[in-house]
Amino acid sequence: MKKTLLVLAAICMTMAANAKILRVSNVSGSSASYTSIEDAHNAASTGDTIMIDASPDYYGGIYADYQITKRLVIIGPGYWLVRNGIMEEGANWARVNKLTIKTSGVVVKGLYLDGIEILAPQVVVNRCILGGLAFGDEADNGAVTQCFITSAVNGANHILLTNNIFTSTTIYTIIKDFNNSIIAYNTFRNKNVQFENNVHNCTIENNLWKAYTANGTGNSFNNNYQTDIINTQATDKFNDTDYYNLEIPTEVTSLYGAFAGDSPYVISGIPTGPYIIGIDAPSTVEVGSTPTVTIKVNISK
């Protein structure tokens, strides 16, 4: 598994030395150059990064079949930012509609997505809220890690699905169409995880769930943990209290589920690296003088 993680880490290195950062914000008065993801995508070149600000408003203009056709890094601010004291009230995340990824090597982080459809290889989705997750047949060698998911999952070949929290009030989380993949260190909060007949030759280990149904062929189920605790107060809504009500003994979470392993789930969803937590700047400056601006930065691991 560590080897697979190293390969995926290499996939994430998509920015060239001369790549641009294109900032998107739909907040009135923002200094961002773009107000929609679509406009930023159209202006971007291969290897660029699109950074999307937190907003109290929905990011429109991304319709159901909108296609990402360039190899980009698309980064949001994370989520549950107010609850974690990272942002002020009213800017809890950057929420967008469904994204359809049509180009290999795209990286998506830190967004609240109503859905994502992956139709290209080597796509990485990390630290997002996902209302829908589907891979096409051609979407091999991809990864979905450290996400909060409330949906069934249609897989593909050689997929890494790790350290995610699945939550739903329905009876099952359906896992299907995975082949030669790793499904590990996930926490499933509904009543049953059902692996369909088209799941083959997968390594399924260190997951935390109430119960599971094993179909398919050639799958290896190792070191998974069953408990009723994780189903308490599970919902199909993206509510931060759904996490905070998740009370599992430390001796369990250190070995099984989303908070265990090499890449434990991060509750805020903040992408790795530095992020701004505050800016101090004078409201007025005399002509000819140099203003002092202080930027407070934290680091997410």
By secondary-structure content and strand pairing, the structural class works out as: mainly beta
Q: Count all strands and give the number.
A: 28
Strand content: 25-35%
- For the termini, the CA-CA separation is 20 Å
Fraction of helical residues? under 10%
Summarize the main sheet: 10 strands, parallel
Mean pLDDT: 81
Based on Cα principal axes, name the global outline.
globular
Task: List low-pLDDT spans.
Answer: 2-16
Rg result? 20 Å
Assembly context of the chains: single chain
The largest sheet has its strands arranged as: 1-2-4-7-10-13-16-19-22-25
Total of helices: 4
Give an overview in words.
This protein is mainly beta and 301 residues long. The chain contains four helices and 28 strands. The strands form five sheets. It has a ten-stranded parallel β-sheet with strand order 1-2-4-7-10-13-16-19-22-25, sandwiched between helices. The radius of gyration is 20 Å and the shape is globular.
Q: Features of this protein?
A:
single chain, 301 residues, mainly beta, 10-stranded parallel beta sheet, 8-stranded parallel beta sheet, 4 helices, disordered N terminus
Please outline what is shown here.
9% of the residues lie in helices and 29% in strands. It contains 4 helices and 28 strands.
Topology of this structure?
Elements: H1 2-11, E1 21-24, H2 37-43, E2 49-52, E3 67-68, E4 73-75, E5 95-96, E6 99-101, E7 107-109, E8 112-113, E9 116-118, E10 124-126, E11 129-130, E12 133-135, E13 143-145, E14 148-149, E15 153-154, E16 160-162, E17 165-166, E18 172-176, E19 182-184, E20 187-188, E21 192-195, E22 203-205, E23 208-209, E24 212-214, E25 220-222, E26 225-226, H3 240-244, H4 250-253, E27 273-280, E28 294-300
Parallel strand pairs: 1-2, 2-4, 3-6, 4-7, 5-8, 6-9, 7-10, 8-11, 9-12, 10-13, 11-14, 12-15, 13-16, 14-17, 15-18, 16-19, 17-20, 18-21, 19-22, 21-24, 22-25, 23-26
Antiparallel strand pairs: 27-28
